[in-house]
Amino acid sequence: MSARILVVDDNPANRKLLEARLTAEYFEVVSASGGFEALEICEQGRCDIVLLDVMMPGMDGFEVCRRLKAGTRTAHLPVVMVTALDQPADRVRGLDAGADDFITKPIDEVHLIARVRSLARLKMVIDELRQRAAAAVALGMPERFDGDKLQGADRGRLLLVEDRASSAYRLQEALAPRFEVVVEANAQEAMFRAAEEAFDVVIVSLGLRDFDALRLAGHIRALERTRHLPILMIADLDDRPRVLRGLELGVNDWLSRPVDRNELLARVRTQLRLKRYAEHLRQQVEQSIELALVDPLTGLNNRRFLENQLNGLIETAKRERQPLALLVFDIDHFKKVNDTYGHDAGDDVLKAFADRLRAIVRRGDLLCRMGGEEFLILMPNVSGAVATKVAERARKAIEEVPFLVQNGAESIVVTTSIGVAERRDGVDPAEIYHRADKALYQAKSDGRNRVAVAA
């Protein structure tokens, strides 16, 4: 896995040393001698991860990190602070500035490379989400970025997996003022709870006595429901090899014993901030999918969704030798509704029409608005004869109860014409729609408010 690493340090020897080590691991390295140069490189999108020295003239690393995390174009960049400062208070200050990790000098190169690789994997996921979110904006979704909300991570639900009662008590006591903490001593039970309940971060003790904590981390990463759940591991200083293995498995961060209360809080907040940023992007992607495939007025699937699904449903019916029927609806004289009562009333009719169709479809049927006043129901494993009865029931449900418009001030009698067709073997998948549409035209020609069946 390769990535572009920005090394920021005012000492040329330090920059050369890190550049040589990272290049040997096939990373592409960019360097900067100060904070302003680093900000410019990041703004231009020329790096994936920032290794940032703290003690620099002009602008120190803490200020550089704060500016990166406050910018809409750079907030997603992972930042690792590299410094000789080794006190917990220094680490907390860096984490509060938005850093993703804090590595002290002299640098443990094995740990550095493992951490960079872990952050590179995270960056790839974030980049993909950002690209999809950008596509959502291109489709018309509003671009929303609330930097304060993403930075603030003082509330959340945590799962603490620790089988030593004294350690669990101290950790819970440190976290409880800001977070809801659920303690689970049994690792097997923790697996089920992580999958079945809603947690924001899982904190796992690497020293579990009766279960391999790395296996628990791997299980959390393997499940679809918990794949993106942040994992913070707590380990003894002499357990470094297993910590590195945990980073390879997908552990997001780790903390050494004895645990500093403020550093624990800061690292949990960091993971919450990253999780919420990713969730923000995923939500925007999901909304873009909905925008592309769902009719905004009625909430039904649209023509594009039908086109994506039709061939697959027809192939399934053909393979399993099952019938498949298609019903096409058209609201009779809908233009007259718009002309007489206005387009708002027409929208009311369309939404109510969709609701009445929802009431008759089965689970597994595909109900779509094709555009304008035309709707469609695709019914797998239904014969043409049965579909005709369903169509007649739908026609009566539309005709018998008037539609209320203008906030109930007016009621309109609405009718619908329906064309029905059944799948035939050995023909093009689109042919069933053309036959149903032709039957619909016949129903309208015969006087409307009726069902016609394709020959």
Tally of alpha and pi helices: 16
The helicity comes to: 40-55%
How much of the sequence is in beta strands? Answer: 15-25%
Uncertain regions spanning at least 5 consecutive residues: 145-152
Instruction: Provide the structure class.
Output: alpha/beta
Quaternary state, please? single chain
* Outline type: elongated
Count of strand segments = 17
Mean pLDDT: 87
User: CATH superfamily of the largest domain, called what?
Assistant: Reverse transcriptase/Diguanylate cyclase domain
What number of structural domains do the residues give? 3
Largest sheet: 5 strands, parallel
Radius of gyration, taken over Cα atoms and rounded to an integer in Å: 30 Å
CATH C-level category of the largest domain: Alpha Beta
User: Distance between termini?
Assistant: 60 Å
Fold-level CATH name of the largest domain: Alpha-Beta Plaits
CATH architecture designation of the largest domain:
2-Layer Sandwich
Spatial arrangement of strands, main beta sheet? 2-1-3-4-5
Description:
With about 450 residues, the chain is an alpha/beta fold. It folds into three domains: about 1-145, Response regulator (Rossmann fold, 3-Layer(aba) Sandwich), CATH 3.40.50; about 145-290, 3-Layer(aba) Sandwich (Rossmann fold); about 305-455, Alpha-Beta Plaits (2-Layer Sandwich), CATH 3.30.70.270. The protein has 16 helices and 17 strands.
